[in-house]
Amino acid sequence: MPLWKRNLIVCWFGMFVTGVGMSQIAPILPLYIKQLGVNDSAAIAQFSGIAFGITFILSAIFSPIWGAAADRWGRKPMLLRASLGMAVVVGCMGFSTNVYMLIGLRLLQGVITGYSTACTTLIATQTDSKHAGYALGTLSTANIAGSLIGPTIGGFIGVNWGLQNSFFITGGLMMIAFITTALFVKESFTREDKVVLGLREVWRKVPEKSLTINLFVTFFVLTVALYSVEPIITVYITQLSGNTSHVALL
Known about the structure:
Layout: H1 3-23, H2 25-35, H3 41-73, H4 75-93, H5 99-112, H6 115-126, H7 129-161, H8 163-184, H9 199-205, H10 209-227, H11 233-240
Helix pairs in contact: 1-6, 1-7, 1-8, 2-3, 2-7, 2-8, 3-4, 3-5, 4-5, 4-6, 4-8, 6-7, 7-8
């Protein structure tokens, strides 16, 4: 098997698991917060919003930092860092004793993420130009599939095996992603000491600045609208459903 194809298979699995890990908590988060001792519906919704959003906020802040680290030390070390860190942090969420510990772990999860970005860069740089389009297109399906299936997986595990086991199983899958990445992903990395353009220099080179700003604002608003219901939808379904035994799956 060609090296680029083996890297693609391993990275696809890792990105899929990472997508599951980032999204599987959505339906079970309010229920888990209630299990940790928060009983007021308003407080549950508030804590759910904080715990859900803090991961993505920190991820946005630290993604450029991990990108710069990948340029300096290689993409595979970033894959190993992110997959091992996610495995440990997500697994530890199952041992949370209060909501503040859970929020702290979610914050840490946002800091150490970056697996998907490193995967994309590695595949782009290690695949020949003839197969690069196919490889990147295939890879993009992994994170999307994981994000779409993740909530269903999290809800199914939470209903059938308990909320804590949802974190343990996801952490175990991420550990498998770490092991397969360590064993099978190969990278021929040569560090290039070149001047990196700053933010102002990059912005000066953008040809359609107003269009770029409009697209940024539009995409930001759409994302806020879509994700704003994530932490409260379980609370809402609980109010609508007479049978609360399968709320996470619903």
